[in-house]
């Protein structure tokens, strides 16, 4: 069956990967029949309504999902398509209460025209009462006028009187989890800092990493614990560490109050999902090397606001005093372990190698990393590891730099991903793993992304 | 510091990790706190295979917990809710708020203060080989420019 997803028109390169990740998590076969990054409307094929619900339930970037009843370039075509696809279903809804809503993207209609459009669907023969609140059946007409990409303000809707590019008609099935963003709004959170990632992106990250009940998730750069909060929302047990203990302790704790990260779990009434935070450095991690983590999520320090540091001493500096007054210096109160500068790539490699040692088979690593937008700037290759398959790369562009979310999957022993390809490939917006990973291309020929790229080239599938 | 976390930890000192005596870390002067938390049987069931049972028994013994079975629960024992509840109590509800974790191999002590352990090492115990500099890959410059 075909379903229409209505996305928020934000974070475009995260939208398909998030839906794909949720389909994988639900064990659902999903095919993208139509997707356009400039449109909020996307058509997917899944088995039935139950699977459609399963896919959308946790989505953060999608708003809702509809059973697709018809589509076309004008209303005559839509009516024909609706008749062709759904005539056998009309009787089922004949006596239900219902409602019609029109949603225009990048265009607008006046009330009179809207009424005419709704009237034009009278051939459906619904005899039930019209109910604007909680109707049994909720029908939607979507008009996509397409952004006027030549206009200086593309976000402004086209003036009235124009005709839409594509029209869809559908029956509402389910809402996503998009409203959860509001619950975790940083503005209302007790403990944050300037580097805390916003609720929407942390929740999307949690979806990409398959956070869920019964699982254990770790953030090696925990900071104020934004990721722990998002992972725990989906039911995971969470723990984290940071080289700077002050980041998760917070000022309140120094004054005798609650630890910062814990106070967030208290605020969201989810203390049972918080395991621990401890002070440590990923290169000298006390975590044992065996596969016990379901997921690792992190936004490593970029070295922008603060230089990257790892435990150790700069070359050329004198060794520290090890014994002071007969007590080893590092056991004295107030001891601060020395730190030295750390290369960005060395850190990324450390993260990947740590992930390959500690993730269970099929476990996921979702890692943010920055990159420059500027062709002449420093281009960071997608870091790769033989035991980790790159699933997708999503990009959040800023004015002159971007950050990317790269999602990896721990491969079973004996399967190895080809890491020679990705290192030279530059990523433009929303590069799929297939383009970066020859292994994946070869062994997953039936995967969804091929279908996407095909249907992108063709006109929208009917 | 919860016992489940400590079960996943060994000494951070390089060269210690491969030594069998570096695991489990041993509690000293441990001050315990019990915090009731929502019981999640699914989590306990999923985590049992990943728990180092011998390590857990040593730790529980050091802290004076008598209820740890000799062998890891399997089969029908996993259907016994009391066993899962006992494990929930030991792994998730028990907190070491103050004390030390000691390595049985090198003797290094990691302090736990207000429930938070510190695993940062002094430099003579950390990595001995300096990390190679990779010119052009230190992001500081281009990004700092673009972000002002």
Automatic annotation (TrEMBL), chain A:
<dbReference type="GO" id="GO:0160102">
    <property type="term" value="F:tRNA (guanine(10)-N2)-methyltransferase activity"/>
</dbReference>
<dbReference type="GO" id="GO:0008033">
    <property type="term" value="P:tRNA processing"/>
</dbReference>
<dbReference type="GO" id="GO:0005737">
    <property type="term" value="C:cytoplasm"/>
</dbReference>
<dbReference type="InterPro" id="IPR002052">
    <property type="entry name" value="DNA_methylase_N6_adenine_CS"/>
</dbReference>
<keyword id="KW-0949">S-adenosyl-L-methionine</keyword>
<dbReference type="InterPro" id="IPR016691">
    <property type="entry name" value="TRMT11"/>
</dbReference>
<dbReference type="InterPro" id="IPR029063">
    <property type="entry name" value="SAM-dependent_MTases_sf"/>
</dbReference>
<keyword id="KW-0819">tRNA processing</keyword>
<feature type="domain" description="tRNA (guanine(10)-N(2))-methyltransferase TRMT11 N-terminal">
    <location>
        <begin position="1"/>
        <end position="178"/>
    </location>
</feature>
<comment type="similarity">
    <text>Belongs to the class I-like SAM-binding methyltransferase superfamily. TRM11 methyltransferase family.</text>
</comment>
<feature type="domain" description="Ribosomal RNA large subunit methyltransferase K/L-like methyltransferase">
    <location>
        <begin position="188"/>
        <end position="305"/>
    </location>
</feature>
<dbReference type="GO" id="GO:0000049">
    <property type="term" value="F:tRNA binding"/>
</dbReference>
<protein>
    <recommendedName>
        <fullName>tRNA (guanine(10)-N(2))-methyltransferase</fullName>
        <ecNumber>2.1.1.214</ecNumber>
    </recommendedName>
</protein>
<dbReference type="Pfam" id="PF01170">
    <property type="entry name" value="UPF0020"/>
</dbReference>
<dbReference type="InterPro" id="IPR000241">
    <property type="entry name" value="RlmKL-like_Mtase"/>
</dbReference>
<keyword id="KW-0963">Cytoplasm</keyword>
<keyword id="KW-0489">Methyltransferase</keyword>
<dbReference type="GO" id="GO:0032259">
    <property type="term" value="P:methylation"/>
</dbReference>
<dbReference type="GO" id="GO:0043527">
    <property type="term" value="C:tRNA methyltransferase complex"/>
</dbReference>
<keyword id="KW-0694">RNA-binding</keyword>
<keyword id="KW-0808">Transferase</keyword>
<dbReference type="Pfam" id="PF25904">
    <property type="entry name" value="Tmrp11_N"/>
</dbReference>
From TrEMBL, chain B:
<dbReference type="GO" id="GO:0030488">
    <property type="term" value="P:tRNA methylation"/>
</dbReference>
<protein>
    <recommendedName>
        <fullName>Multifunctional methyltransferase subunit trm112</fullName>
    </recommendedName>
</protein>
<dbReference type="GO" id="GO:0005634">
    <property type="term" value="C:nucleus"/>
</dbReference>
<dbReference type="GO" id="GO:0005737">
    <property type="term" value="C:cytoplasm"/>
</dbReference>
<dbReference type="InterPro" id="IPR039127">
    <property type="entry name" value="Trm112"/>
</dbReference>
<dbReference type="Pfam" id="PF03966">
    <property type="entry name" value="Trm112p"/>
</dbReference>
<dbReference type="InterPro" id="IPR005651">
    <property type="entry name" value="Trm112-like"/>
</dbReference>
<keyword id="KW-0963">Cytoplasm</keyword>
<dbReference type="GO" id="GO:0046982">
    <property type="term" value="F:protein heterodimerization activity"/>
</dbReference>
<comment type="similarity">
    <text>Belongs to the TRM112 family.</text>
</comment>
<keyword id="KW-0539">Nucleus</keyword>
<dbReference type="GO" id="GO:0070476">
    <property type="term" value="P:rRNA (guanine-N7)-methylation"/>
</dbReference>
């Amino acid at each position: 069956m075909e379903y229409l997803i209505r996305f928020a028109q934000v974070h475009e390169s995260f939208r398909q990967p998030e839906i794909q990740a949720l389909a994988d998590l639900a064990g659902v076969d999903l095919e993208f029949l139509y997707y356009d990054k400039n449109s909020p409307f996307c058509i997917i094929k899944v088995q039935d309504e139950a699977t459609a619900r399963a896919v959308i339930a946790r989505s953060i970037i999608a708003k809702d999902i509809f059973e697709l009843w018809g589509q076309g370039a004008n209303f005559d075509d839509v009516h024909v398509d609706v008749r062709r696809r759904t005539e056998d279903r009309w009787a089922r809804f004949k006596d239900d209460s219902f409602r019609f809503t029109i949603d225009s993207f990048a265009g607008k209609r006046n009330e009179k025209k809207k009424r005419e459009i709704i009237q034009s669907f009278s051939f459906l023969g619904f005899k039930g009462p019209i109910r604007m609140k909680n109707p049994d059946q909720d029908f939607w007409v979507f008009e996509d006028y397409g952004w006027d990409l030549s206009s200086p303000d593309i976000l402004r809707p086209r003036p009235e009187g124009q005709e839409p590019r594509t029209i869809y008609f559908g029956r509402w099935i389910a809402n996503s989890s998009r409203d959860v963003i509001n619950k975790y709004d940083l503005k209302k959170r007790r403990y944050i800092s300037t580097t805390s990632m916003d609720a929407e992106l942390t929740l999307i990250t949690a979806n990409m990493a398959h956070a869920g009940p019964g699982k254990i998730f770790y953030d090696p750069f925990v900071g104020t614990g934004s990721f722990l909060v998002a992972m725990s929302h989906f039911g995971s047990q969470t723990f984290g560490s940071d080289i700077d203990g002050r980041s998760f302790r917070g000022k309140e704790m120094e004054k005798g109050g609650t630890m910062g990260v814990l106070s967030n779990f208290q605020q969201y009434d989810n203390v049972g999902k918080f395991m621990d935070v401890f002070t440590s450095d990923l290169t000298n991690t006390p975590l044992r090397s065996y596969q016990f983590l379901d997921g690792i999520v992190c936004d490593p320090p970029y070295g922008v606001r603060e230089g990257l540091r790892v435990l150790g001493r700069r070359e050329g500096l004198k060794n520290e005093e090890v014994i002071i007054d007969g007590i080893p210096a590092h056991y004295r109160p107030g001891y601060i372990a020395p730190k030295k500068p750390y290369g960005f790539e060395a850190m990324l490699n450390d993260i990947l190698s740590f992930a390959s040692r500690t993730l269970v088979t099929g476990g996921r690593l979702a890692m943010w990393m920055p990159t420059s937008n500027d062709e002449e700037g420093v281009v960071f290759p997608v870091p790769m590891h033989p035991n980790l398959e790159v699933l997708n790369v999503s990009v959040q562009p800023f004015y002159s730099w971007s950050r990317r979310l790269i999602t990896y999957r721990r491969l079973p022993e004996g399967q190895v991903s080809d890491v020679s390809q990705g290192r030279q490939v530059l990523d433009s917006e929303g590069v799929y793993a297939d383009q970066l990973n020859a292994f994946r291309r070869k062994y997953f020929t039936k995967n969804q992304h091929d279908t996407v790229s095909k249907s992108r080239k063709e006109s929208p599938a009917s | 510091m919860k016992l489940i976390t400590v079960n996943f930890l060994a000494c951070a000192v390089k060269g210690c990790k491969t030594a069998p005596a570096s695991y489990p870390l041993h509690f000293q002067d441990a001050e315990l706190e019990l915090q009731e938390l929502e019981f999640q049987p699914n989590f306990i069931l999923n985590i049992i295979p990943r728990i180092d049972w011998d390590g857990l028994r040593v730790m529980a013994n050091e802290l004076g917990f008598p209820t740890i079975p000799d062998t890891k629960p399997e089969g029908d024992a996993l259907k016994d809710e009391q066993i899962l509840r006992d494990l929930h109590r030991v792994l998730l509800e028990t907190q070491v708020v103050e004390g030390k974790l000691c390595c049985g191999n090198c003797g290094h002590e990691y302090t736990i203060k207000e429930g938070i352990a510190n695993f940062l090492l002094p430099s003579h115990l950390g990595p001995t080989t300096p990390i190679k500099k990779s010119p052009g890959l230190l992001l500081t410059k281009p990004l700092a420019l673009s972000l002002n």
